[in-house]
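Q: How would the structure tokens look for this protein?
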Amino acid sequence: MKKLPDILEWTSKAEQDYQTAITMARKRKKPVPDIVGFHSQQCIEKYLKAFLVPKKLDFPKTHDLIELLEIAIAKDPLIEVYRKDLRILNPFSVQFRYPGESATLKESETALKTMKKVRKFFRERLGLSSY
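A: Here is the predicted structure in token form.
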């Protein structure tokens, strides 16, 4: 697949979120589970949007991974298998960003693991290395 500029821009930004989530997850003295979860969610949001670009599917400005999944299913029904994973990540877009709720270390570890799994799928589908 030819890499369109939009795909490369989305994936570049997704990789910045990936690296941030990985780096922040290594903090042991002062863990930041909200930040780890947020960047895990952002990574997959951007990969989902990169996935939609070559399929010529318009998508709204949204952080809702399930809304984006519904759009993607129209062209690739197999992506449905990731619904549960996207539901795990979805709350990290807004829910834990403001006072009132905080993610636990366990939740952030689950988000990180989920991000790695879903990221691998999208990188393969986009013809990118799976490093």
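The chain has a mean pLDDT of 91.

The longest helix spans residues 5-25.

Upvote if useful.
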